[in-house]
Amino acid sequence: MNSILVTGGTGYIGSHTVVAFQQAGFDVIVLDDLSNSSEQVLDRIERITGTRPRFYLGSIANQALLNSVFASHPIDTVIHFAGFKAVGESVQHPLRYYQNNVAGSMVLFDAMQKAGSKKLVFSSSATVYGDPGVIAYTEDLPLRPVNPYGQSKRMVEDIARDLQASDSDWSVALLRYFNPVGAHPSGLIGEDPRGIPNNLMPYIAKVAVGELSELNVFGDDYTTPDGTGVRDYIHVQDLARGHLDACRYLNEHKGCTAFNLGTGRGYSVMEAVDAFRKASGQPIPVRISPRRAGDLPEYYAVPDFTRKELGWKAELNLDDMVRDHWNWQKNNPKGYDS
Ligand code: NAD
Ligand code: UFG
Which of 100, 271, 282, 283 lies 20 to 30 angstroms, CA to CA, from 149? Predict the structure, then answer.
């Protein structure tokens, strides 16, 4: 059986995707340098699926390692999650982001090219759109990211597109995730950010579990229904399933195609807090704070193209997301170190 190589497969979205692929009968190989994840994820995946994925500890920038992985296994498709993702850190340390996300991806693509393994699913982000002047994002909007992290994602998209244009054997799906949240319903895997979380849902979860005292709501005077920021939160289980659909699509379509992965509707910060209060029974104190630099008031995906082409549609709603996020957090109050 041909294998699927998942870079960044012990990370948050990667681990859920590995489970989805194993449960769909694929042989999965994980490559991760554990720079932002725990090896314990492999035990948890084994507990969920009964199979421990083969694991290579190392970086996508390690050419010799990649060549040996491709030489040892017939890799059908590469699902490429590995990279750094903190917007603020990317502004402070842009070279780290260009080095790891862009240069690292180039080493990976070169190894794929040499091995003749030319099907790629790439983790892009809604952040590639920047501030397009509309709130409903379609894939054909111009890409004008506003920070080095977003630039790095756009650059990798461009590189993949150029590569495919140079060699029609390549098939590439660029998946632009909106705001992934939630966890596997088993509560065995989930998001485990190091330090104080930057993102809303893991922050709320740490307030709910008592590790942080209150949530700072970054602005309540936006032109949104309740004044707080609106985003398209998507359950990580729906997202993981999207990778299976993208993988199937690549078997039948050459080219390089971008797909939004979002639900198509937005929720405000206060709607997310209220849903989490209901699911957890915890009070979740909030403090209204100044707006966060660089935040947009509101945006969400137009998922119509993805639905038409991939046959994929998000099925889980905000209540499902917060229920599963809370289930993970309360069972693992200190993440994988609990
Ligand atoms: P994550 O940090 O949990 O997972 C990334 C994984 O990649 C980690 O396990 C890390 O150890 C590994 N990694 C980093 N650099 C590596 C390298 N050079 N070689 C090998 N492994 C390396 O992040 P995530 O939330 O699971 O995100 C996965 C991907 O999706 C990332 O590319 C991210 O940019 C993208 N994305 C995430 C979000 C989000 O909000 N979580 C939104 C849009 C896009
Ligand atoms: N927010 C708060 N308090 C917090 C954290 C967030 O009020 O402590 C608010 C933000 O202002 C925003 C919303 O919650 O209105 C969501 O913020 P997140 O930080 O969770 O998510 P972002 O939409 O800012 O960005 C996320 C990822 C990016 C990715 C982008 C894609 O962090 O990496 O989604 O759309 F690029």
Answer: 271
